[in-house]
Amino acid sequence: MALTCHGLSTESKDRQGTCIWFWPDNKIFTTAIEFDYNTLAGRIRELAFLNPKLTITLKKEDNDPEKSLYNEYFFAGGLFEYVKWLNADKKPLHDVLGFSRQIDGTIIDVALQWCSDAYSDTMLGYANSIRTIDGGTHIEGVKASLTRVLNNLGKKSKIIKDKDISLSGEHVREGLTCIISVKVSNPEFEGQTKTRLGNPEVRKVVDQSVQEFLTEYLELHPDVLDSILSKSLNAFKAALAAKRARELVRQKSVLKSSSLPGKLADCSSTNPEES
């Protein structure tokens, strides 16, 4: 595939940006090639969310004007708008939370929101604008920090009254939509498809930054903390009830399988003469 970039001169005031032309190499792509507009649009929308100062236009030209397509993507709110877009049909418990900071050369952007009518989590991770579908150290850092912070604040605020209760990551993340984007100077991608971030130093700085932000924000907004922990505690109770129900079913199955055949009866006396 040939890729050509044309940078505009600094004297150009009316036009700014980069023009890119590319053609599939017919020595590699030997069959007819057709680009899917919706696939390209999805990826370009994603890039526009990840880079809030960037405007990207996508245009499909066709001999038939009615088949021509054009879209422009620009999201000043960045990841905040990304989370809002993902949660458009849900019932948020609070406004989107998030921050952007740089630690030891790593740029970290995080946005997150819990919804009352969602019962699983949506966690999207990016490294240098590349989607890490298999997770990585940045995702691990977020998860560890979320679980620790909410357990600590829950017990400190007495919302979690039982000292023996410890919320797991699964309970804490129920209903959560979270996006983390990191920009790393020397990213280490792992896995066969290179879709997992492996930099160990990233986990540390992400964990630290999420803990600092979330602790400060939730201590200043106890109503948000209460709503998040209420949902997490409900998830904990539901999981506990489901576990007890499974154990009860297993006990009944064991008792049923260990009973004597129908034509036989249990002895009612230990005296052989009475049997």
Q: Which structural class matches the secondary elements?
A: alpha+beta
Main pleated-sheet profile: 5 strands, mixed
Q: How many strands in all?
A: 11
Shape descriptor reads globular
pLDDT averaged over residues? 87
Quaternary structure annotation: single chain
> Architecture of the largest domain, CATH level 2?
2-Layer Sandwich
CATH topology of the largest domain: Ribosomal Protein S5, domain 2
Q: Main sheet: which strands, in order across?
A: 5-6-9-7-8
Any idea how many domains? 2
**Which percent band covers the strand fraction?**
15-25%
Catalytic activity: ATP-dependent breakage, passage and rejoining of double-stranded DNA
Function: Control of topological states of DNA by transient breakage and subsequent rejoining of DNA strands. Topoisomerase II makes double-strand breaks.
Protein name: DNA topoisomerase 2
Keywords: ATP-binding, DNA-binding, Isomerase, Nucleotide-binding, Topoisomerase
Structure commentary:
The chain is of the alpha+beta class. The protein folds into 2 domains: 2-73, no CATH class; 79-236, 2-Layer Sandwich (Ribosomal Protein S5, domain 2). The chain is 38% helix and 21% strand. It contains 6 helices and 11 strands. The strands form 4 sheets. It has a 5-stranded mixed sheet with strand order 5-6-9-7-8, with helices on both faces. Residues 1-8 have low confidence and may be disordered. This is DNA topoisomerase 2. Residues 78-247 form the DNA topoisomerase type IIA subunit B domain. InterPro entries: HATPase_C_sf (IPR036890), Ribosomal_Su5_D2-typ_SF (IPR020568), Ribsml_uS5_D2-typ_fold_subgr (IPR014721), Topo_IIA (IPR001241), Topo_IIA_B (IPR000565), Topo_IIA_bsu_dom2 (IPR013506). It catalyses: ATP-dependent breakage, passage and rejoining of double-stranded DNA. One of its GO terms (molecular function) is DNA topoisomerase type II (double strand cut, ATP-hydrolyzing) activity.
